[in-house]
């Protein structure tokens, strides 16, 4: 079975013109035509940390946010949110606090797509190499402690190097799709956003979404991948 996943740092819906326009982000999300999307920076960072995307409009457009919000009015856990298409059935969700100098987290969703089990992990790692390494190690150990399941890890890893640092740590158990530059949206040179899977999932295609709206809506471009889940045609 072929599914599409994507990861997108939406910068709290603030575009390159420094205007907060959730409608632009929602437009890009719908353009991706994905089954699962991991968002980063989905909520405001300070104050009540409410979501910058409307729950109502997401639902109207056919998206179901996974239940990982920090509190009522939010969409994500430390900004990390997971959007699901109607074909995805959620079995369990889990929120993870990561070791950091500033609040960082990961979210996990155990789901089934047309009856096939899959685990989705979304995260946004720190800005310094030591914290990224500690966070990657923490996530890897958390996954190893859980019952095995075909897994997709997505997010803004903030790693400029293609194989070192947190990429190297995750690669002990996951296979990364070939990197592609997603940052800065105006002139992408860094593959900060990454998608990795357990070896039992096949990456069929991957790409960066370069639509006109995507190049203005955030400082990151979305990264997508088409996957083949194990045991399916």
List low-confidence stretches.
none
- Strand proportion, as a percent range, falls in 25-35%
Indicate the percent of residues in helices: 10-25%
The CATH homologous superfamily corresponds to Endonuclease/exonuclease/phosphatase
User: Largest beta sheet: what is the strand line-up?
Assistant: 3-4-2-1-12-11
The arrangement of helices and strands along the chain is EHEHEEEEEHEHEEEHE
For the record, what CATH class applies? Alpha Beta
Globally, the shape reads globular
Average of the residue pLDDT scores: 95
Rg value: 16 Å
Largest β sheet strand count, sense and barrel closure: 6 strands, mixed
Q: What is the rounded distance between the termini?
A: 5 Å
CATH topology: Deoxyribonuclease I, Chain A
**Number of contiguous helices:** 5
Number of strands: 12
Structural class: alpha+beta
Number of domains: 1
> Any guess at the CATH architecture?
4-Layer Sandwich
Q: Can you describe this structure?
A:
By secondary structure, the protein is of the alpha+beta class. It has a single domain (2-228), classed as Deoxyribonuclease I, Chain A. Helices cover 18% and strands 31% of the residues. It is built from five helices and twelve strands. The protein has helices spanning 22-32, 55-60, 129-145, 166-170, 214-217, and strands spanning 2-9, 36-40, 64-65, 81-84, 88-97, 105-113, 116-124, 151-156, 175-176, 193-197, 202-208, 223-228. The strands form two sheets. It has a six-stranded mixed sheet. A six-stranded mixed sheet has the order 5-6-7-8-10-9, with no helix packed on it. Strand 1 (2-9), helix 1 and strand 2 form a beta-alpha-beta unit. The radius of gyration is 16 Å and the shape is globular. The mean pLDDT is 95.
């Amino acid at each position: 079975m072929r599914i599409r996943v994507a990861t997108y740092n939406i910068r709290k819906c603030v575009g390159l013109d420094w205007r907060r326009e959730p409608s632009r982000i929602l437009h890009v999300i719908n353009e991706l035509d994905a089954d699962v999307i991991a968002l980063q920076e989905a909520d405001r960072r300070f104050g009540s940390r409410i979501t910058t995307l409307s729950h109502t409009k997401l639902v109207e457009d056919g998206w179901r946010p996974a239940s990982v919000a920090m509190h009522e009015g939010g969409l994500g856990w430390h900004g990390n949110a997971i959007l699901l298409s109607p074909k995805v059935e959620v079995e369990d969700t889990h929120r993870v606090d990561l070791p950091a100098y500033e609040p960082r987290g990961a979210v996990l969703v155990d789901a089934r797509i047309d009856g096939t089990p899959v685990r989705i992990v979304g995260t946004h790692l720190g800005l310094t190499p030591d914290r990224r390494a500690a966070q990657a190690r923490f996530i890897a150990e958390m996954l190893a402690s859980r019952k095995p399941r075909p897994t997709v890890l997505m997010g803004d890893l903030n790693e400029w190097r293609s194989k070192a640092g947190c990429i190297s740590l995750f690669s002990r158990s996951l296979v990364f799709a070939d990197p592609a530059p997603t940052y800065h949206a105006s002139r992408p040179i860094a593959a900060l956003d990454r998608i990795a899977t357990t070896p039992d999932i096949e990456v069929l295609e991957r790409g960066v979404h370069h639509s006109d709206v995507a190049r203005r809506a955030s400082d990151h471009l979305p990264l997508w991948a088409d996957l083949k889940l194990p045991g399916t045609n």
